[in-house]
Write a structure and sequence with these properties.
Elements lengths: L1 H16 L11 E4 L1 H9 L6 E4 L23 H5 L5 E5 L7 H7 L3 E5 L5 H14 L3 H22 L7 E7 L7 E3 L4 H8 L3 E2 L7 E3 L2 H7 L3 E6 L7 H4 L9 H4 L3 E5 H5 L5 H12 L1 H5 L2
Parallel strand pairs: 1-2, 1-3, 3-4, 5-7, 5-9, 9-10
Antiparallel strand pairs: 5-6, 6-8
Helix pairs in contact: 5-6, 6-12
Length: 287
Amino acid sequence: MKLLSHSVRWLSAALLAVPVIASAAPERIVVVDGALTEIVYALGQEDKLVGVDTTSVYPAAATQLPQVGYKRALSAEGTLSLAPDLVIASEDAGPEGILGQIESAGVTVASVTAKASVDAVGEKVKRVAALLEQPDAGEALWQSIQADIETVQASQLRLSKPVKVLFILNASGGRNLVVGGANTHADAIIKLAGAENAVQGIEGYKPVTTEALVAMAPDVVLMMKRNEHSMPAAELFAIPGLDRVPAADNQRLVTMDGMLLLGFGPRIGQAMKQLHEALYPAVVAAQ
């Protein structure tokens, strides 16, 4: 009996002496979504990136990393060829089932919200920071983002009337213009900048008729900057329908970098500020 008791005590002591090995922090990461890639860089963890998707265009260094394709048309084989130990992807990554295939190969896959809101940005930052075991850096980043947002919100208190903004996703050839309606990233950023979406009664991104454009009566047209392919204001406002809206009177066309404008990543405060200043130059100048 004494021998058994001694053995139990020895075994207990031995077990207590064995160090607890925590799961290793990820060292090879593939990120699928431009906003999430920006967060990794903002957290100073870019040295762990081994691959990104094609929407990861900021900062410029991200474009030099191996690419796994467009985030909604991923290849499991291409992603796995980079030997990641963690894949961080937005919840709208695809095609359907692709993340499950990657996970079944033994790779940890983490899905992150793709919603367009200030709260969603906070959720993205904190989620990525937790995955990379950088909670303090994540909290500091989120506080910095909130400070930028609050600055823009303070300026909005001086607005007497919101301008009506029409976001055009595609104006190629001047026909079947595709505009941003409710529940889009465009709708969200327009409202966050203190303006009103001129598109009402439309869900998502949809083509509209000439008559519909006239009825929308936007004060400003908003588009993504496409470098040498950007459409000049004079050409845009010559399109039937757009030639009869208030924005045409002063050729009010605002263009912004697409990832900044619609990314809803760590630069959300910068996006709100830039758009707000472009929409309300007189209000900003009077501050």
